[in-house]
Amino acid sequence: MSDRPMQSTLREMQRLLRDSRSWAVLVVLSLIAGMIGPFGTYEAIPVVPRLAYWSAIVVGTAAMGTLVASVVERLLRPRLPEWLAALIAGGAAGPFIAALVALLNWAVFGPDITVIDLMTLTIYCTLISMAVTLLSALLGARPAGAVPVDAGAATEAEPALLARLPRGLRGRLVHLAVSDHYVDVTTDKGTTLVLMRLSDAMRETAPVPGLQVHRSHWVALDAVRRSTRQAGKPMLELVTGTMVPVSRTYLEATRAAGLLD
User: Fold this and answer.
1) 229 bridge partner residues
2) If you average pLDDT over residues 92-110, what whole number do you get?
3) What is residue 142's DSSP assignment?
4) Which of 5, 124, 11 is nearest to 68 (CA)?
5) Neighbours of 129 (CB within 10 A)
6) Torsion sign, CA atoms 148, 153, 158, 164
7) Do 215 and 231 form a contact (C-beta atoms < 8 A)?
8) How far is CA 215 from CA 92, 199, 211, in A?
């Protein structure tokens, strides 16, 4: 089953929408822009409407840029170097971001906008978008929620599953979990969604020692911190802090692997 870029991107955006840290960053940026009032908005708009305006700009452009750039980058990444795919993806997102900003400006300031204004806005938005996506690719920024895993336990051979992940998320495998028709793949650098079956994903974890402990969960053996019980049911606590249930079907295999006390 192949990973469709649009579907995978939409699932990632849903995850971001549920991430309180992502919202915290957007709120801070909105407050800063709203209070400073760049591009003449400090004089043109009162403080409360100005905060609302910049909140719409920040959240709207972040969503639009993430959507377009992520889809394009996923399409290009298998065929181009990561930095070049990020640069092109950022450029592709620029006109869409500019269109959104122009629409918001029309709603706030009226339709008094020239072709030159639109061209200038598009150039600015495209350059900024390209810079952001390129910088993210070059830095290989570790996503929120990344956790360290003992480097001494690293395996020399790389699991085939890692090739399906964005380069910034390729690291030590920690956990696989079913999420509808997707698999949540967690490494020591974060989590992403891959459109495939859990059984196929588990086959691509070799040579990492791991075990299926539930019909919806696979864990790397060295990612298990301890075993415990919740409501009388056996659970495994991973190095990420995630609690993974152990079902009756896999109880003996889990115990034989030394994961249960």
Assistant:
1) 234
2) 91
3) P
4) 5
5) 26
6) negative
7) no
8) 40, 10, 11
Model pLDDT for residues 68-95, shown as the tens digit of each residue: 888 888 778 667 777 888 899 999 999 9
Evaluate the CA torsion angle 74, 78, 84, 88 in order and state its sign: negative
Q: Which of 90, 235, 78 is nearest to 165 (CA)?
A: 78
Three-state SS for 182-236 is: EEEEEECCEEEEECCCHHHHHHCCCCCCEEEEECCEEEEHHHEEEEEEECCEEEE
CA dist 138 and 151 (Å) reads 23
Alpha-carbon distance of 174 to 189, in angstroms, equals 10
Q: Give, for 76, the enclosing helix (H) or strand (E).
A: helix 47-76
Q: Which residues contact 67 (CB under 8 A, 6 or more apart)?
A: 9, 10, 13, 93
Residue 142 tokens, joined: 């570790």
Peptide bond into 209 cis (omega under 30): no
Q: What local confidence, expressed as pLDDT, does residue 66 receive?
A: 85
Per the CB < 8 A criterion, the answer to whether 234 and 245 are in contact is yes
Helix (H) or strand (E) holding 130: helix 115-139
Q: What is the pLDDT of residue 2?
A: 40
Q: Tokens 């570790």, residue?
A: 142
**Helix H or strand E segment including 192:** strand 190-194
Give the residue-averaged pLDDT of 242-256: 93
Give the relative orientation of helices 20-36 and 47-76 as an angle to the nearest 10 degrees: 130
Per cent of the chain over pLDDT 70 is 85
Q: Could you read off the pLDDT of 135-154 as tens digits, one per residue? A: 877 765 433 334 444 444 44
